[in-house]
Amino acid sequence: MSNTYKSAGVDKEEGYKTVDKIKKAVGETHNSNVLNHLGSFGAFYEIGGYKNPVLVSGTDGVGTKLKVALDTKQYDSIGIDCFAMCANDILCHGAKPLFFLDYLACGKLDSEVAAEIVLGMVKACKDNNCALIGGETAEMPGMYKPGDYDVAGFCVGIVEKDQIIDGSTIKAGNKIIALPSSGFHSNGFSLVRKVFPNFEEEFEGKPLFETLLVPTRLYYKDIHKVLEEVKVSGIAHITGGGLYENVPRIIPEGLCASIDAAKVKIPSIMLELEKRGGVSREEMYGTFNMGVGMIIVADADHAEKVLHLLDDAYEIGEITEGSEKIDLKF
To answer: What is the pTM of this model?
Structure first.
């Protein structure tokens, strides 16, 4: 019997089935700027209507949150996470997402699972006026075990050059506004899984995995609702490393983000993890978003407008002079 690609562990037919299951839905994310369709070697996206456009790109994955999804066979939210982690990053510079590409790797491809993951991306793209214009599905026996998947994505957005937000206009006296997260988002799950090894246990009246798998919040509509009416000095996406690592990325030298931790609205699941795992509060803030998915920095007058525009936003601190870029007061 001769060797075939299938006998080596790669089933091309399953890949074709995956494409068939997602092709129509993916096409629904396309607009007139998308000049070709799935199946080409490259994806074409035409840019128009900008005076001095700058492309802003971001790439990310879902991390070990995937383990929770795979162990509980809940795949529908993971694609949303993948898109959100990329798109939320480029929002920090005032960009609007244009298009998204995904990368899905596995040990043995199951077209049903792969399609469910990609359809989550489709949902997120449609909700954010973004086109899913390409991707790659890699079946890699020997690299991944059957049933294992890894998911990553790449998002490109656009902003006028004179409207780029990079934190350079942040000044002492500016207010720091928190936009709540939907939970852990897609960070810190190596510690989450260590403290909560049983995803099926009950938490607040439902299986724990339902809380853990709540998808990363998408901030596109909130951020651009604000940017249409308010001048913003800085935006930070609070991902891995929490407030400690992400806020300083936008703070100019000689200034400090002075944050009152008592004002932060910490989700109950994070308080439970802190208690059960014996994790220090400082470690919690250096690992998780602690309920703050994004921050907006604006002067006092503009901050009031932000709070008026976004019902769930709230103030957690202000910019002061100082050599440390963040001072988290407990």
So the answer is: 0.95
